[in-house]
Amino acid sequence: MFLPGPWWNTLTYALNAPRLPAEGARVKVPVGRGVRVGFVARQKIGAPTDREIKPILEVLDENSALGDELWGLADWIGRTFLCGMGEALQLVCPTLLLRGETFSPCLPDRQPRKSFQEIPFYHPLDETRFEYYRERLLAGGRVLLLFSEVETAAAFFGKLPIVVKEEALLWPSSGGKKQWEAWKRVASGKARVVVGPAGAVFAPLPFDEIVVDDESNPAYIFQKTPKISARSLAGRRAFSLRARLILGGWMPSAKTYLRSRPECPVRLPSGGFVLVDLKSALKVEARGVNGKLPLTSSLMDRTRAALDAGRHVLWFLDRKGYAGEVYCSDCGESLSCSRCGSIMRVEAARVRETMELRCVRCGLRKTLPFQCPTCRGTLLLGKRPGLEALFSLASRYFAERVVLFEAKGKPVKPSVILGTRGLLPLCDTLDVGLAAWLDLDAEARKVEYGARFQAFSMVWESYWRGIGANGRTVLVQTRRPGFGWQNTFRLGWSHFWKGELRERKSLALPPYGFLVQLDLPAGGRASERDDLVCLLERAGIPVMDAGNGPLWVAAKSTDRLAAVLAPRFEIKNSRQGFPVVTVWSE
DNA sequence: CCACCAGAGCTC
DNA sequence: AGCTCTGGTGGC
């Protein structure tokens, strides 16, 4: 039996009943002090144990609660992404199914298609792609349609022709009761078409066709562990169902490009793209903050011109708050979080017009101190000015036409709108004449090997997104203009991927290999870290250890690593907590 | 005197 | 990660 949770091993229980429940059926069993719901595993022949075997308290299902196909998907997730069946089940199942809610599945039969087939469909204009998807839905069959954003899914669903809508379902973005109702409705065959965000990839229907729009968007990666992309899961489902997989978007992901080498169908018009050297930035400083703000004369001129033409301007900067860091001018020490030790940034307090500190990692809020907590120095200065500092500065030039983006409400008059990549959806509804990336080098540094792709795709999207694309200009400020990948913007993503993949291949990075991130449980002994490193190295697996932060392992396949980690994830090790394993594969 | 809560303890 | 047990608090 598998227990939903961080554990990898199966547990053995005694059954006092004439008939064995099917693989995947749920049972109630005593675990630790309490009673929990588990899933029946494939029978192991004569599992000998030296300890007393506890009884199964209740059998909840006669048949598999998930169905064979989704059960197989969970099994594949557990093996491929080093999370074990327990966490895979938590990801695949609706929460109420895990709690033991009763239901009787009646999954519809399906005439299997002959073979798996992958169709790339890349076009920068939403309407062109969406029209194609609508045609696919009208053609009949069971179709799953995934979108990278909830809003896009809802909008697409809203505009479906009545005939399709009647047999379609919009998958809820929230869990709980709504998700459970959707699950039951789909499982009982009351919908032929499922439209939704990433979570809809677990809709319990044997689809004939699976469409993934915007397939390279990292928004498909689930927030909770295991951090897997719904796109990978869609691909796996299509493969095991022998369904048709349609991959659409602005541009392909590394994996898809590598497999089918599609050609970029469009280029940026020559006037539509401007590359600016950030080294020529104006020497403007915000009060109390050290460091230049990335404003060049080229940016200012074009912004003014776009506003005069009655159009909106987007300024992208991936730094929230007023300053990214605060340091003491006497001792040089930076203020750090008392809870997790990360650096604190300065941002506007939610009450009154004051500033407060906020931890970039754990989100802890604190009031801004008057003196340095280390040396009692009285001059605290900000480093790396962010959007709020930019706002007060830009207001000097463009007065009330500058807006700091908030999710709600949109400016009516032509404005300079400041924000992070979250501004991109504004292109759908506003006439954007200029999209400016103030400091492209600083964008998307989270996953190092994916940083260039992130940056490229966002800039690419900022040109094409929305109906006002005609005549829009994209301006990119960088410290390295004219070198390497920045030049591929004009030529399109085929050129970008060719260069990028050549480099990743030489380093055996994804999609050519796996990169595994191991975050150790907080509060563990330091020796535990050494033990794990030692264990891996003895098994011939080299580990990158920076001393703090996660451990990294690069591997061609995850099999060997899985074998080494498995004993660490047995239920008896629960007391010391478990490392969080994240597999980067594309 | 017991309802309620936070923290400890446990895991085939 | 849940689940239950425990022991302290507080409401009346």
Question: What does it look like?
Answer:
By secondary structure, this protein is α/β, with parallel strands linked by helices. The chain folds into four domains: 105 residues, GIY-YIG endonuclease (3-Layer(aba) Sandwich); 134 residues, 3-Layer(aba) Sandwich (Rossmann fold), CATH 3.40.50; 225 residues, no CATH class; 71 residues, Alpha-Beta Plaits, CATH 3.30.70. The protein is built from 16 helices and 25 strands. β15 and β16 form a beta hairpin. The model has no long low-confidence stretch (mean pLDDT 88). The protein binds a DNA duplex (12 and 12 nucleotides) through β1 and β2.
**Number of H/I helices:** 16
Helix/strand-derived class?
A: alpha/beta
Q: Provide mean pLDDT, rounded.
A: 88
Low-confidence regions: none
Number of E-type strands: 25
Rg from alpha-carbon coordinates: 27 Å
Distance between the termini: 32 Å
Comma- or semicolon-separated keywords:
586 residues, alpha/beta, GIY-YIG endonuclease, Rossmann fold, 4 domains, six-stranded parallel sheet, DNA-binding
